[in-house]
Design goal:
With 336 residues, the chain is an alpha/beta fold. It has 11 helices and 10 strands. It folds into 2 domains: 6-122 and 302-318, Nucleotidyltransferase, domain 5 (2-Layer Sandwich), CATH 3.30.420.40; 130-296, Nucleotidyltransferase, domain 5 (2-Layer Sandwich), CATH 3.30.420. It is 43% helix and 19% strand. A 5-stranded mixed β-sheet has the order 3-2-1-4-5, with helices on both faces.
């Protein structure tokens, strides 16, 4: 592969329309993100039909802006990489169809990218390190502990058996009247609260010690709120947010360090939307101490973005992966 190899990444798996240009996989020349939050927040979550329509409206403009910001033309692109799953199938189809059209018209190779792998590869956009490492992938739909043996080579060590961590954040934020998206709002409220005010449970799954469960924690929060309201006990939103966040972070940190010990691996990375959580970053770094090297992307690269898709696409292409015009969108695409 030539130097200054330019990859156009396209991401439309949920409610962000994003296009980005990377050079040689790791150098970001542009990363444009169009968020749909204002259309979804009144519903307390993402409405798939609205998401698909907004992607259709935005995809051409966002891609052109990515080219303009990178100061290149369509003809300069060497590779088109696009998220093909997992995600909302209607939303994914917008990006996949657009990427296939570009690939065909420009006569440039096309690579379909797994969204979860994209989150893992976001770490390579800022941090100068390489596999092997343990990666905790935490977002609205995914909570995975992954042993990254090499580029494109993974071992799933643990995952949630019910709700994902990000989903628990969203539902708790809604119950507290904080709004959507829940993660950043819980994080903000928790800074003014007492994390030891309420003792919420942390699930430990027998015989699956590296797995997670957050449905019981979510139910415990809802029960606490209902009991308090029935008995007329004042609810301190900040204390509930802080105590809930502590329970989630404790579970994530404990299992991540246990996974690192299991694999005798001294390098740990965070990925996904919840990886932007300040408490998670602080506690993992503190608990790891000097014995581990901790990496995480800047917050904008933790959320859904096309730069991570371009990075993953570059490495997949370098390993010989090329998609053809039969590439489709897969709502439940597996990485493991």
């Amino acid at each position: 592969m030539k130097n200054d190899f330019l990859t156009l990444g396209i991401e439309t798996s949920c409610d962000e329309t994003s296009a980005a240009i990377t050079s040689d996989g790791r150098s970001i020349l542009s990363n444009c993100i169009f968020s749909q939050i204002k259309w979804h927040e009144k519903f307390g979550g993402v409405v798939p039909e609205i998401a698909s329509r907004k992607h259709l409206e935005a995809i051409c403009h966002v891609t052109q802006k990515a080219l303009d910001d990178a100061k290149i033309e369509f003809s300069d692109i060497d590779l088109v990489a696009v998220t093909c799953g997992p995600g909302l199938v209607g939303a994914l189809l917008v990006g996949v169809s657009y990427a296939k059209g570009l690939s065909y018209a420009l006569k440039k190779p096309l690579v379909g990218v797994n969204h979860i792998e994209g989150h893992i590869f976001a770490n390579f956009l800022e941090n100068d390190f390489a596999p092997p490492f343990i990666c905790l992938v935490v977002s609205g739909g995914h909570t995975h502990l992954v042993y990254v043996k090499d580029y494109g080579e993974y071992e799933l060590l643990g995952q949630t058996v019910d709700d994902a961590a990000g989903e628990a954040f969203d539902k708790t934020a809604r119950a507290l009247g904080l709004g959507y998206p829940g993660g950043p709002l819980i994080d903000k409220a928790a800074k003014a609260g007492n994390e030891n005010a309420i003792s919420f449970p942390i699930a430990h799954i027998k015989d699956r010690k590296l797995s997670f469960s957050f449905s019981g924690l979510k139910s415990s929060v809802l029960n606490y709120l209902n009991n308090a309201r029935q008995k007329g006990i004042p609810i301190v939103v900040e204390d509930v947010a802080a105590s809930f966040q502590k329970a989630v972070v404790d579970a994530l940190v404990d299992n991540t360090l246990e996974a690192a010990k299991t694999k005798n691996c001294r390098t740990i990375a965070l990925a996904g939307g919840v990886a932007a959580n300040n408490k998670l970053r602080e506690q993992l770094t503190k608990a790891a101490g000097d014995g581990y090297s901790i990496h995480y992307p800047e917050p904008i690269l933790c959320t859904d973005n096309a730069a991570m898709i371009a990075c993953s696409g570059y490495y997949r292409y370098s390993m010989g992966f090329i998609s053809d015009m039969t590439l489709n969108a897969y709502a439940n695409l597996k990485l493991f």
